[in-house]
Fold this sequence. Notes:
This protein is an all-alpha fold. 77% of the residues lie in helices and 0% in strands. α3 runs parallel beside α5 (69-86) and α9 runs antiparallel to α10 (161-173).
Amino acid sequence: SAERTERLMGLAYACSDAPSGLAFGRRLLGLRPGDTAALGAFLECLVSHNGPSEIAETIAWILSLPYDASTLATVVTRGLGALESSGTAELRMRVARRAFDVVGAMDAAVRGLLVHTGKSSKEFAFSAMVLERALSCGEGRGEAGSGYLALADLYALALDADGEVRALATAIRDGAEVPSLEDRLERLSAQKLGGDAEIALLDVLASRAPEAGPREAALALRRLGAALWDLAGDRAGAVAAWVDAARRAPFRASTTLRRDLVDFAGHEDALECLLALAEHEPDPARSGSLLAEAAHVAVALRDDDRTFDLASRALHRNPAHTDALASAEAGTRDDRK
């Protein structure tokens, strides 16, 4: 019976016969499935009398039994706590990985212990995986992005530049104060990054560039636009970045915008994009500049009628923009030489 098995377990442990006590304890849990009192008695004997290997193996086995999440969380904390002082890093990580698979990272105590186990075992990628799982579920974010900043630090220890960039970008968006941020961004800028991480880093750099002046801000936004176009296929995002760059540029803003659009989209699409932007631009001077640049693109397409129509519209939008027609005429002559 279960009562007799429990007495035999206690007697075996009392006689320092840990292997027999372990066998009776496992039999007890089989006779009393889901019984937390029986589990508690066995767990206390296990961590007090058995060796690290037996503890690790048995904790992993218990995690496969039908207990609720709260009970299993207690098993994990008790087992890893015992292995912290007596087990090897390999044993601790074996239990930690099994616990993560079964219990997850939603319980704050378990999450903290799993992250600590990974760090103490120099398995920083595991710690980052645990914390990221929790953050993705809305747990452990902390104040002002502190959770994502901690995640970025773990990825840095794991030498995972992509993960560090993504976490750091989120932390900054959430308002985290990042120590030595400029040095960190400089280091990450020198790393070879994947597409998503490259875009995240350029987005951070663009958000900080205004502090360095309008020229630097425009350049950072142009680089972000290029990455969005090439790496993410996000044409709308790229155009928005280039338009923002043009608004910040200290001079020749519309010309730079036109060149970026032509370089990436080609003349036909660049022309249509400039026309759409001009039609939705409420400022007459800017609208006129965009139409003038559209006229330059029409020159390259050898569309004379459209060239002069656009130049005329540019002059109409902004009478002060008297160079629009002359530029179109000069461009037409140059292209036909």
